[in-house]
Every structure is written in structure tokens, then in C-alpha cells.
């Protein structure tokens, strides 16, 4: 390695260390987080790690601190969906829609809940409305989520909507509306407005 490369790498390493240390100090000194912020961040981490009971406890704590905290309402609904508690999840998705009716991810996630409950017409309506609000929902989870959690991209809201639309157009005896293995692979959507 030549001298110039060594100096550049050394300076880069020092800059990264200084910035990292500065950020850690800034976060440590921040004393006035929003009500429920700490519990909400803990819930998001628990959800990402698949610790759904812990996530539910932390979302509950965040909502006790701030009952209008929309990201905690959505997080609680997504967690209930992952735990298979679909009726409860729909209730919380409804709460989120009541507060922020134009947020496409909530409709997409409620559609997933309806889909898993076998309420396919309602699922299709929510998928189509989510796509109407923002066709970017059709992209599915972001590349970082796919990199960390998935081997191949899961079915998207657009894929599932197309499939349901085609199946619902068939005579009832020919329909195949549920494919448990593929349906279970569908990921929930987490976006910030």
C-alpha cells in the first residue's frame, strides 16, 4: 500500500470514529424525547427481531404515554397481524385509518389481514385502494428489508391484487384463493408519512 492510500484510509477511519462518537454523545445527551418515543423505538426493534410479545408490550407502553401516536398504532396492528390475531389487527388498522385516512401502507396491511382471514373481497378492495393512493406500495418492502430478511422478493400488494382479481372472476368451484405458503411470505408494510 502506498503512502497516499494509507493516509486517506487513516483519515477516513478517524472521520468515521469521530462522527460515530459524536452521534453517540448526541443521542446520550438528548433528554427530552417525545412521549412514548423510547418505548416505540424498543417496540420497533423487537418487531424487527421477531419478538412480537415484547413488541406488543412496548407498543402498549408507547400508546399509554401518547394514545394518538400513529406509528405505535400502526406498529401494534402489524404486530398483531404477525401473531395471527387478525380481528384485533383489523381493529387497530381501522384506528390508524381513522386518524390518517390517506396513508396507503395501512390499507395494504389491513388487506393482508383480511386476506389471511379469508375475506378476499375486502382484501382486494384494500389492496386496490392502497395502490390507488400510492402505486409505490406495489414495490413491496425496501431493498434493505429484502437483503436482511428474504432470499427472494415476496408477493407484493399488486401481485396479490392481480391474483385475487383473476380468481374472483372464476366460477366459485374453480377458485383457489388461498396458498398458505405464499400468503405467509407476504410482508407487512412499514412506512412513515
Keywords:
single chain; mainly alpha; 2 domains; 10 helices; 0% strand; extended
Write the layout of secondary structure elements.
Layout: H1 3-29, H2 37-48, H3 52-65, H4 70-82, H5 86-99, H6 104-117, H7 120-133, H8 143-149, H9 157-168, H10 180-185
Helix pairs in contact: 2-3, 2-4, 3-4, 4-5, 5-6, 6-7, 7-9
What report would you give on this structure?
With 193 residues, the chain is mainly alpha-helical. It has two domains: 1-31; 79-185, Tetratricopeptide repeat domain (Serine Threonine Protein Phosphatase 5, Tetratricopeptide repeat). The protein has ten helices and no strands. The chain has helices at 3-29, 37-48, 52-65, 70-82, 86-99, 104-117, 120-133, 143-149, 157-168, 180-185. The longest helix is centred in the N-terminal third of the chain and has 27 residues, at 3-29. It is extended. It starts with a helix and ends in an 8-residue tail after the last helix. The mean pLDDT is 85.
Q: Give the CATH H-level superfamily of the largest domain.
A: Tetratricopeptide repeat domain
Percent helix among the residues? Answer: 55-70%
Low-confidence stretches: none
Secondary-structure element order, as H and E? HHHHHHHHHH
- CA-based gyration radius: 21 Å
CATH class of the largest domain: Mainly Alpha
Mean pLDDT over the residues = 85
Looking at the overall shape, the CATH architecture of the largest domain is: Alpha Horseshoe
Task: Give the oligomeric state of the chains in this entry, treating copies of one chain as homo and distinct chains as hetero.
Answer: single chain
- The number of helical runs is 10
CATH fold category name of the largest domain: Serine Threonine Protein Phosphatase 5, Tetratricopeptide repeat
Q: How many domains? A: 2
